[in-house]
Amino acid sequence: MVMETMVAKRALRGLVAVGGLAVASAAAAMSMAGGNESMAPRHAAQSASISVSGCWIRSLPPPAPSAAYFVVHNEGIRNAALTGASSPAFGSVMLHKSIESGGVSSMVMEPRIPVPAKGNVTFKPGSYHAMLEKPRQKLVVGTKLELDLQLASGETARASCLVRPAGALSR
């Protein structure tokens, strides 16, 4: 009987170890979503209260990264937050903010951008922007490309972005 109990305990420890490994693997995979590649599902529900307008992309020759600019509108009664972005036209999309310190401009990745209830957030040159890297196609001025913004709620907001010339400063 003692031997059977010892065998059962070892088997149970093995199952716990395997289960713990599975949980650790899932956690590691989820943590990668915070990196350069958006791992958000492409089939998430569209937000009823968040919309995007005026989206445009500055066309730069590959392999130079480009940027998307737009206005996010929150018609809802609750605050929202952008947590990521993706586009079938780019291998990597990150939400950034340009900052200036001591006369030097730099960009910082923004993991969460608040969008106030009944308010707007503007993505424009010198401020917030979606950094578009690893283009999967040539950017042709005048064409439109999709951009999906991921929200903290798990929903998405889709934008249709007009490709503008490299020298464009606004839509």
Can you walk through the features of this model?
With 171 residues, this protein is of the alpha+beta class. It has two domains: 2-34; 50-164, Sandwich (Immunoglobulin-like), CATH 2.60.40. The chain contains one helix and ten strands. Strands 1, 2, 3, 4, 5, 6, 7, 8, 9 and 10 form a ten-stranded mixed beta sheet that branches. A hairpin with a 4-residue loop joins strand 9 and strand 10. It is globular. The N and C termini lie far apart (79 Å). Residues 1-41 have low confidence and may be disordered.
Features:
10 strands; 44% strand; globular; Immunoglobulin-like; 171 residues; alpha+beta; 2 domains; disordered N terminus; 1 helix
Quick take:
This protein is of the alpha+beta class. The chain has one helix at 2-31, and strands spanning 50-58, 66-74, 80-86, 90-101, 104-109, 113-115, 120-123, 128-135, 144-151, 156-164.
* Helix-strand pattern: HEEEEEEEEEE
* Integer tally of domains: 2
CATH topology descriptor of the largest domain: Immunoglobulin-like
- At the first level of CATH, the class of the largest domain is Mainly Beta
Low-pLDDT parts are 1-41
Helical content class: 10-25%
Task: Give the amount of beta strand, in percent.
Answer: 35-45%
Main pleated-sheet profile: 10 strands, mixed
Class based on secondary structure composition and strand pairing: alpha+beta
List the total number of helices: 1
Shape: globular
- Using only C-alpha atoms, the radius of gyration works out to 22 Å
**Total strand segments:** 10
Q: What is the typical, i.e. mean, pLDDT?
A: 81
**So, the CATH homologous superfamily of the largest domain?**
PCu(A)C copper chaperone
Beginning-to-end CA distance, first to last residue: 79 Å
CATH architecture of the largest domain: Sandwich
